[in-house]
């Protein structure tokens, strides 16, 4: 019953794959080093040249490394960890864990007792190794022609100045700092400045509304909020500071007052003289930060000290504060970045994600910088001024690794190949995808058109909670299958379980769980360890439950099939249906709401809301707009429903539970698959809903 239409679609597409028998022998052939017929239509092989230079260049090499990581995790990970600087080494155990709720409190620790600093490892270590002059960040503004760059040495100085300022205003180890910034260089600078002094950053995506920001501030009670006055996104100017102002006013009403709002003047979007200002509380970044020393001693922290909080959506209304700690996260993001993208020091890397999401934390900021990589940070919108912008940027900076989301691939695919083919893109060598399942046709377009059939695609499956990649191709090792995230990363043991939590072997589909911990795993939900256990470790005792469905084919490839809980994935953004519902019911004319995800051509999933109005209120276009606006204001524009479906009543069981399965079928117009509706308290609501489908 938890299997969604999304899931079925994938199972169907799997069923169309040619029978597995032949493929297995082919894979054996690869392992044995024999040549293969590359016309196998569901296997896409890395070129021999690519494999020859790859960090992991054959299935056999992958197998050996993987085997070691599972059989001897302590040895495997301590070897990797030794590449970093630790003030003191862990002692004596590399890790300890209990992820089995039946055996007591869930607890995961990696490198406990060791002390280190992630900012030191990302910046100072690279400068000391002689890479101070290497570009750390290329910044590309919203408007073509607007750009900047920082070398590792310069980035370190900027970070130190901000660290010193933060210390000066009283921010210390363990204190929370909320960062609400767009993709300026100041965003990674602010993250690193916090981690340098042991402060815990909580970045809030700058597309979230004042209410959502307030909710997050109330939860973690930061000493400082860091923002900027405004940002240009495409043709629009967004007044971020005003959003922060109203969030802070809201928080003050609830008894949480933040004494300092450090505001970066983003001149290209807005002049400071027209920015609304609250003396004493508000301080211009440019007025204070540059006055501080560009050297700042590092705060050494325990490997298990918190690094950051990042709120994400769950199946209830309240966002969850996912907490990551320092040592394991550092080792894991660095290692996954290096292997999944076959990173080499000469690469120029661009990830289109915003630092407001986990992808921006692990794979814009920490993972790449820990590897000493050159990273492109892009402020703007990918189709502004036109749909060729991404490839213009790729050519401008000679980007060699390009990492993005399927929704962008699909939207650019719709805009036409000309926008791509008029740019050279010859610097590209590895492509990456994240955030939602990539459908095979988008995969093929990405591969053939964007990558000129040369660049392997790393379809990386992971989550805010996992910190880093969990199931991902290692380009150069195995042949790929369009739409499959392939195999687990080192140290990761995925299992597929049935409804009862029994592991299923071989070719199968079910719920994706993970056995054992990995260094990048989140350690708790901030302030709510019980919810951590209930959500992730109780559904299938003995395992971490991902919330995703997954199939495994005969060759052992993994096919992620989407969420099996009440979380939907819109353009790669995780949104809880309950959050949207609670925004809708806060509208005075809305009596009840039920939200489901529907397939959407570009966004992957769209938000489809069934709304019951207060008695006597007539349906109107105006009301529809006002409901959508309520969601935009309460959560953010990215959560606006695509469709409001008027509902005189909702299909409920006799015990009052809304049957979402039926709503999903109505939303996706699969009316012949409604199934048994006789258990409903009032089966006639279904016909009423169908009748109102096109209103
Ligand atoms: C989905 C984003 C299929 C999945 C990193 C997961 C994916 C949720 C993939 C986490 C992928 C992410 N293939 N599905 N390559 N990557 N997902 O926390 O449903 O924003 O549970 O982390 O996105 O979303 P989150």
Percent strand: 15-25%
In angstroms, what separates the terminal alpha carbons?
29 Å
Q: In terms of per-residue confidence, which ranges show pLDDT below 50 for 5 or more consecutive residues?
A: 1-41
- How many strands in all? 31
Mean pLDDT: 92
Helix content: 25-40%
Structural class: alpha/beta
Q: Give the strand line-up of the largest sheet.
A: 12-11-8-6-7-14-15-24
GO molecular function: 4-coumarate-CoA ligase activity; acetate-CoA ligase activity; AMP binding; ATP binding; trans-cinnamate-CoA ligase activity
Domain AMP-binding enzyme C-terminal: 579-657
Domain AMP-dependent synthetase/ligase: 129-517
EC number: 6.2.1.1
Task: Itemize the secondary structure elements and their pairings.
Blueprint (H helix, E strand, L loop, with lengths): L4 H11 L4 H12 L16 H6 L5 H13 L1 H9 L13 E4 L8 E4 L4 E2 L1 H14 L3 E6 L6 E5 H17 L7 E5 L5 H11 L3 E4 L6 H11 L3 E5 L2 E3 L2 E3 L1 H14 L6 E5 L17 E3 H4 L12 E2 L3 E7 L7 E6 L1 H14 L7 E4 L6 H13 L3 E5 L10 H9 L3 E4 L1 H10 L2 H4 L8 E4 L6 H11 L6 E3 L33 E5 L5 E2 L3 E8 L8 E2 L3 H9 L6 E9 L5 E6 L3 E4 L2 E4 H9 L4 E11 L3 E10 L7 H14 L8 E4 L13 H8 L16 H8 L4
Helix pairs in contact: 4-5, 6-7, 6-13, 7-8, 9-10, 12-13, 15-17
The structure holds 5'-O-[(S)-ethoxy(hydroxy)phosphoryl]adenosine.
5'-O-[(S)-ethoxy(hydroxy)phosphoryl]adenosine binds next to α13, β25 and β26.
